[in-house]
Amino acid sequence: MSKTITIDGKTIPFEDGQTIMDAAMAADVYIPHLCHQPEYTPHGSCKLCTVKVNGRNCSACTFPAMEGQEVLSETKELIDDRKKVTQMLFVEGNHFCPSCEKTGNCQLQGVAYHLNMLDNHFPLFYPDRAVDASHPEVMIDHNRCIFCTLCVRASQQTDGKDVFAISGRGINKHLIVNAQSGLLKDTDLDVNDQAAHVCPTGAILIKRTGYQVPIGERIYDHQQIDQVSLAKEHLNHGE
Amino acid sequence: MANKIRVATTSLAGCFGCHMSFLDIDERMLQLVEHVEFDRSPITDIEHCTNCDIGLIEGGVCNSENVHVLREFRNNCKILVAVGACAINGGLPAMRNHIPLEECLNEAYIDGIGVENAQIPSDIELPLLLDKVRPIHEVVKIDYYLPGCPPSADVFWKFLTDLIDGREPSLPYELVHYD
Amino acid sequence: MRQLIQCIAENDHYEVRHLLKMLRQIQAHYHYIPEAAIDQLSGLLKIHRTQITSVIEFYSFFHLSPRGQYELLISDSITDHMLGKQSLLEYMTIKLNVAVGAVRQDGLVSLDNTSCTGMCDQGPAGLVNGHALTRLDKKGIDQITALINQQKPLEEWPPELFQVDDNIYKSGLLLNQQIDQGAGIRLVLQRGAKETLQEIDKSGLRGRGGAGFKTATKWKFCSEEHQMERYVVCNADEGEPGTFKDRVLLNSYSDQVFEGMTVCAAIIGAQKGFLYLRGEYLHLYDKLENILVQRRQNGLLGNNILNAGLSFDIEICLGAGAYICGEESALIESLEGKAGIPRNRPPYPVTQGYLGKPTVVNNVETFMAAAGITINGCDWFADIGTEKSKGTKILSISGDCPRPGIYEYPFGVTVKDILTDCGATDVLGIQVGGPSGTFISNEEFDRKLAFEDLATGGSFIIFNTSRNILDMVSNFTHFFAHESCGFCTPCRVGTSLLKKQVDKIVEGHGSAGDIVALEELCQLVKNYSHCGLGQTAANPILTTLQRYPDLYHSHLKEISFEPGFDLDGALETARRMANRDDAGAHLAQTESEHE
């Protein structure tokens, strides 16, 4: 007998060592997330994957699955609050989708579409953030960084480098790169590094590739992020 | 005819792209005008709002005139709708927000290449610029939002027909876009 | 510079876990951390420069750009404000000729605010180059100004500027007790570790930091872990505004605290302990180090303690200005030389703490109580207090009362009795447990301090009827936004949004929907934040909104909506540049104001 949990009443098997997110994805159940990708150590910072476990809020991507857990995910309360957390991510940065190359392929946008987010709800911060276009092939637009640390983790865990880090405290958090000049061109980032491709938003972009696919024909233009996310997970497991 | 829904539209700090997209409902406009009549709008050239059911606002708030127009709409429209990216988050005009206004004005009127007779315009007829471009929900209360740059014709059609038919407006996945 | 940095790194054996200590020394020497120092240090410690930069930018006391040779920081606790901090700060800007947040042109002095420095009973307080200043007044400022302008070294400043008093007004079980150095350890050795743990278990001792987890259970869990390398950590990062009892305990009772840590080490089998001392208590550092030296000399620390084969030593680590490091997993991160970002849990520190090893983290007062219980037995403690809250609680009392200071009470004491003892009159309400705690009104003075009613880490700030509660709420809300570590979205963005929303209402720009929006935001931050900071950051708003809804509503305009920013102010630049001041060059904040 394998161990099981339930998510929204549906029985889901899990193995020891799996998080709730692992178990959910393996069972084709989508829980919204941005800072999580199965190939990297879970971070638990975006809080979009918050689920109620036996009545208590937990991050599905970091919380271990344990026998008999009753997990609630798609409740009205959680969906509404996930939308507000997404709106928080939008207002703290400068997310002008019409002028962003990533539009249509952006996971932040994809999650927002999925949650039917139509407005920003909160006052906008309009922070003063820079663009680093110094690298010949990769650029950073800090306006769109959501501090998910996927680039930090990809650089460490896949590329065997340490190009990126998150610095600062509180609302002054920001992405920094490993160079005395502070510029991407002076790091050892290569355009083929996983870290250059992992950004869920348009904060790290590969130059000269932005409009290869026209707007309107991009990933989330016709397909919801839950399907995309689960399909990708299955691909990774060779299913 | 007296029961027609009155709709007013305007563009603040916008490009009229949303209005153009609205017109893209094409022949459905004929169906629409059976239920709707237009008050203040670029379509009618009426200069001020009277009592309306729906106000559609394109563009963000970048100057003092925008504030006055927005307030006129809020005072006269039962339902006020933020239409398009600029109305919702300031959009492209708000990309000036990280440049101090003083720098913007100096670049445009004093130091910029090709500027002749350099001076900051000063005329009581001219609206003054706000230091930052704001989304309209930070200046007045907004009832509905139609995202997109522009929202597609189908978004306008879905939203207005929902209201006309007495349904709570909602946008299906395919119609929600920020670009 | 190269030689100095080399020396600093070498002294700490090039160990990354000492990064904060190294940066403290560099900051003290240069009044900032120069780029060249980061470069050199990254080479010496064999870590990436990003790792060093992210630590510098996390802690309030480190800077990437130069501060003054005399770096003045003024405590921004609500209690400092109640003692006239704001006008004093303004006086300082004039006398010292420097703006708040700036460095004077000659580089001699810089001035800024800092979070509560733990001198609430003797404020307005501050720090100069990290050293505590107390009871600041205009005369003191004049004196300080002269000393700075003469460039007198701090050692030559009059000691009364730095005088820190204990102000103990009421002693009980703990504060009355005297222990002979080593008495606790001897008893553990006599009685046995298991038996001592049982005594502590039976005493009912719960953590004194505020959360109240049962101490013996925590120690037991830790002692049962498979890994043999274990750690004891004393949390002296007393950052909750209005709390200062740990400062007094470490000043006058540190032997008992160290005794308690050693008892813990004997029970859980730890060889190494840390006292994580908040940077604001730098003035205690030398004194505490001396006591550790003394204890080593007396065979109570080090190898083979009391010739009984027990090995344990304690190291003092200083913080660098980050409230979040009071959270145990953030504290451990900080001990490891990193930014204080709370970890994901599970695993908990008792299983994977410092360097991934089982670690007990307890409050200063908890260790002191554990020492007492070890010596006097469980009944000594358990006979006092209430059913679920055994023993006594040491309170830091500040705000509107004639005798602010330290008071020790059996758990279960009523608020009314406390107010009588400290002489408070005309009381409007009390913030119990600091900003993350609860505000109680003057209709609740029969309530008891105990885990079953009002739980508290010890902060007790009294407000009299001349005070505006919303000033307090605003101060606390700004505090949390400043101290949020920024790891998770709900706290990072939410605390800043709370700040904006509270400011909007307090400044009179609120309208009908704004209270609802505020409450909704409070729930979001409370329910979704990663750690205790975010989960309690909305408490000042929630607890006052519940008690004084009318107060909030009285600040609202009788209109449906008002912008959260100053509309007319937003035209100021354009007005100035167009040289206009006609009616059309202005905007009313709301339509109703217009006509």
Write the layout of secondary structure elements.
The complex is a heterotrimer of chains A (239), B (179) and C (595).
Chain A: E1 3-7, E2 10-14, H1 20-26, E3 50-53, E4 56-59, E5 70-72, H2 76-92, H3 107-114, E6 131-132, E7 138-141, H4 150-157, E8 164-167, E9 174-177, E10 204-206, H5 219-222, H6 225-236
Parallel strand pairs in A: 1-5
Antiparallel strand pairs in A: 1-2, 3-4, 3-5, 6-7, 7-10, 8-9
Chain B: E1 5-11, H1 17-23, H2 28-32, E2 36-38, E3 52-58, E4 61-63, H3 64-76, E5 77-83, H4 84-89, H5 101-111, E6 129-134, E7 144-146, H6 153-164
Parallel strand pairs in B: 1-2, 1-3, 3-5, 5-7
Antiparallel strand pairs in B: 4-6
Chain C: H1 2-11, H2 19-30, H3 35-45, H4 49-56, E1 70-75, H5 78-82, H6 85-96, E2 102-103, E3 109-114, E4 126-128, E5 131-133, H7 138-149, E6 168-170, H8 173-176, H9 183-191, H10 193-203, H11 215-223, E7 231-236, H12 245-252, H13 254-268, E8 272-277, H14 285-297, E9 302-305, E10 310-318, H15 328-335, E11 359-363, H16 364-376, H17 378-382, E12 392-399, E13 405-410, H18 415-422, E14 427-432, E15 438-441, E16 459-464, H19 469-483, H20 489-506, H21 513-528, H22 532-537, H23 539-547, H24 549-554, H25 572-578, H26 591-594
Parallel strand pairs in C: 1-3, 6-13, 7-8, 7-11, 8-10, 12-16
Antiparallel strand pairs in C: 1-4, 2-3, 4-5, 9-10, 12-13, 14-15, 14-16
Number of helices of chain C: 26
The end-to-end distance of chain C, rounded to whole angstroms, is: 66 Å
Predict the CATH topology of the largest domain in chain C.
Answer: Rossmann fold
Radius of gyration from the alpha-carbon trace of chain B, in angstroms: 18 Å
Low-confidence runs of chain C:
none
How would you describe the overall organization of this protein?
The complex is a heterotrimer of chains A (239), B (179) and C (595). Chain A has helices at 20-26, 76-92, 107-114, 150-157, 219-222, 225-236; strands spanning 3-7, 10-14, 50-53, 56-59, 70-72, 131-132, 138-141, 164-167, 174-177, 204-206. Chain A is of the alpha+beta class. Chain A has two domains: 3-80, Ubiquitin-like (UB roll) (Roll); 98-228, 2-Layer Sandwich (Alpha-Beta Plaits). In chain A, strand 8 (164-167) and strand 9 form a beta hairpin. The longest helix of chain A has 17 residues, at 76-92. Chain A is globular, with a radius of gyration of 18 Å. Chain B is α/β, with parallel strands linked by helices and 179 residues long. Chain B is 30% helix and 20% strand. Chain B has helices at residues 17-23, 28-32, 64-76, 84-89, 101-111, 153-164, and strands at 5-11, 36-38, 52-58, 61-63, 77-83, 129-134, 144-146. In chain B, the strands form two sheets. Chain B has a five-stranded parallel β-sheet, with helices on both faces. The N and C termini of chain B lie far apart (37 Å). In chain B, 46% of the residues are buried. Helices cover 43% and strands 14% of the residues of chain C. In chain C, helix 1 (2-11) crosses helix 3, helix 3 packs across helix 4 (49-56) and helix 9 (183-191) crosses helix 10. The longest helix of chain C is centred in the C-terminal third of the chain and has 18 residues, at 489-506. The chains are: A alpha+beta (239), B alpha/beta (179), C alpha/beta (595).
